[in-house]
Amino acid sequence: MVRATSLSGLPELVIRLGGDPDAVLRSAGIARRDVGRQDLFLSLSRVVTAVETAAAVTARPDFGRRLAELQGIEILGPVGVAARTAATVADALAIFENFLSAYSPGMTLRVYDVDDPECAFVEFLLVDPDLPPSTQSIELSLGVTLRVLRFLMGSRFTAVSVHLPHEPLTTVADYRRYYGCPPHFAQGRAGFTIRRADLNQPLRQDRLAHETIVKYLAEIAAKEDSTSQSVRVLVDQLLPSGTVTADLIARQLNLHPKALQRRLAAEGTTFAAIIEGIRRDRAARLLRDTHITMAHLARELGYAEQSVLTRSCRRWFGCGPAAFRKQFRS
Length: 330
Hints:
By secondary structure, the chain is α+β, with helices and mostly antiparallel strands. It contains 17 helices and 7 strands. The model has no long low-confidence stretch (mean pLDDT 90).
């Protein structure tokens, strides 16, 4: 699910580009009157379908980036209010890390270290395992993330680099102009490398408003907390290391491995099922949206040998990875 504000500006943009927004929204099962409502949640899968369909109907491969220009921190509702009233940029991003589920349980944002000690990586992740192809929605989300960062740090802010999990949809120069930094494609994750000095920038904090809205968000999060979603986020991040185990994830969540198993069972899943689902979805996306080599794909899925990738693809798709890629593109 995601707030209906996630489609703000879509009807107007489709009209401007010569399309029929009502037809686009109908194809996704969404009523036009619901677009932009703060009090309404829509199926994330339907929202993704609407954005991808709009790009196809208008024949604009940069549709997601264009739509991001019509959105900003206001679409995030109370999460956006909590972020812009925080003390520093780092505190604002911590709000997104902890409470983005109040905007959409199917999205997460994480900030973590990279090899360069002067930089950090801000990752955006769609964690819903059942989403349709979502290249436009990923570019929309990265565009909105950039607009939020510039809202917090000023319009001159530039990231060190932007990372996208698919091949370029337009020229590489288009991406460099849009994001204002070097783009990297067919990456294992989507997000921005930014300078740690930028994270320390102070904001115009409103302590009373901030504490009030954070308390409200914390109450929502306590009701919606999901162990399986936390596991999915950690597994997705750690999978390429090839070291993901139930014991490791349990330690990250401060749980005994048996307690982790019990919680997942109560939510109707298992650790093995989560890993299998993430590997299947990542494989399908990378085979569909990139020209990644099979050896690279095996590493992205945490496999030590390419033969394991081949066997897994036959189990998931009924054919090997090369045949799946050819079949899908045909």
